[in-house]
Amino acid sequence: MFRPLMRRLWLLALLPLAASAEIKDRIAAVVNGTPITLSEVEDRVAPELARLPDGRTGETQRKELLRQALTQLIDEQLVQSEASSLGIDVGEDER
Questions:
Q1: Domain definitions of the chain by residue range
Q2: Which pLDDT score is estimated for 58?
Q3: Rounded-to-integer distance, Cα 66 and Cα 56, Å
Q4: Exposed/middle/buried for 41, CB within 10 Å: 0-12, 13-18, 19+?
Q5: CA angle 54, 43, 70 (to 5 degrees)
Q6: What is the pLDDT confidence band of residue 40, given thresholds at 50, 70 and 90?
Q7: Is 66 left (phi over 0), alpha (psi -120 to 50) or beta?
Q8: What is the band of 22 on the pLDDT scale with cuts at 50, 70, 90?
Q9: Cα 38 from chain centroid?
Q10: In whole angstroms, what is the distance from residue 46 CA to residue 49 CA?
Q11: Which listed site, 3, 4, 15, 23, has its alpha carbon 20 to 30 Å from 37?
Q12: 65-91: average pLDDT
């Protein structure tokens, strides 16, 4: 009787920790089963993002930069997938 009660109390004590779990990365797109994460997109344009002004103008420019970077990453993934399906080996420096 005491053990099941303690187990339930322990689980209830841990519940807030599980509820406050943080999302580490988000998936921006999936291309042929391969995810492209938001951090990959942000890494692609990090220098440009660092130079943007604060405020509405900067936020608009940020969204546009991220959209362009995502489009580029999607295109690259599609080309890589097509090359793989044709048996063409694309080296890391050629991507």
A1: 23-94
A2: 87
A3: 15
A4: buried
A5: 90
A6: very high
A7: alpha
A8: low
A9: 3
A10: 5
A11: 15
A12: 91
